[in-house]
Amino acid sequence: MPNKSERYIVEKLNPNFGYFYKVRKTLISKRTKFQKIELVETPEFGNVLLLDNVTQVGEKNEFLYHEPMVHPALCSHPNPQNILIIGAGDGGILREVLKHNTVKKVIMVELDGEVVEFSKKYLTNVNKNCFKDKRVKVIVGDGRFYLETTKDKFDVVIMDMTDPFGPSIMLYTKEFFQHVKKAFKDKRGILTMHTESPISRPQIFNSIIKTLEGVFKNVNIFYLYIQMYATLWSIGICSDTVDTSKLKHDRISDILKKRKVGKLYAYSGLIHESMQAEFPFISDIKKQKAPVLTDKKHEFSEKIDCNLHSHFGIVELKIK
Q1: I want to staple 86 with a disulfide (CB 3.0 to 4.6 A). Which of 101, 103, 117, 143 is the partner?
Q2: Which one of the listed residues 160, 186, 243, 250 is annotated catalytic?
Q3: Is the pTM of this model over 0.70?
Q4: Is 130 in contact with 64 (CB distance < 8 Å)?
């Protein structure tokens, strides 16, 4: 029997730890102006979007990420009407935002417009055609430049960018978060963003939190497991006046019902409270000193771009 070649996506979360999953076949592969974009069919996740060989979103269990990125922040705001999303070109976060009937306008800023068009065509199982909603405006461009120049004001800003290396590092600095703050409609403004993994990237996690705490009075961290990231992850919800830790489960249940959000799979009032429970070892990490990220000083001591030059796309298996 001849050898059979099978493809596995192998991703390093740090130089010594990572995960893998099997690819059944490649459905589409092309290059945009900025990156390689690929849609692969997998037994575990269904169809998966890859950008430069790095997993972005899979059809199975994508709600484990998208729901916590949206609903804790929107439920914490008394009347979220105007929402800004930076990144998130697959449309999963947009889908969740539009479930709140208070929302009147959503602006999405995505650097690579081809990712949005690709997702409209091939990732409808994720975005549910939400780009067609009349409340949505997609702007193709740099998210930081948009925030530095826009006169629009927002109740909630949701950041769903790539990990902090390369050009995206400038979306993690103190100066950038100050621009976010200036774009709030009023003092009740909220920023939500992923804050990396305290398991696989503890120093980066700590630096991001320290940077956020240098800009916002309240920085609440939510902890969750995300299957397509294969580790404990974290989401930061930041505001000067809104403290999401004070929002209790019965109040959240009332808000979700009043706004006719409908069935959710990874978020509820009780989950809101439980995701903020912190392991003691994470509290110890947060007590350690960590550099605040600035436009001039934004280098991490931990290596984070380890997938760029060490991706293993094909594994040879001998089938007897």
Answers
A1: 143
A2: 160
A3: yes
A4: no
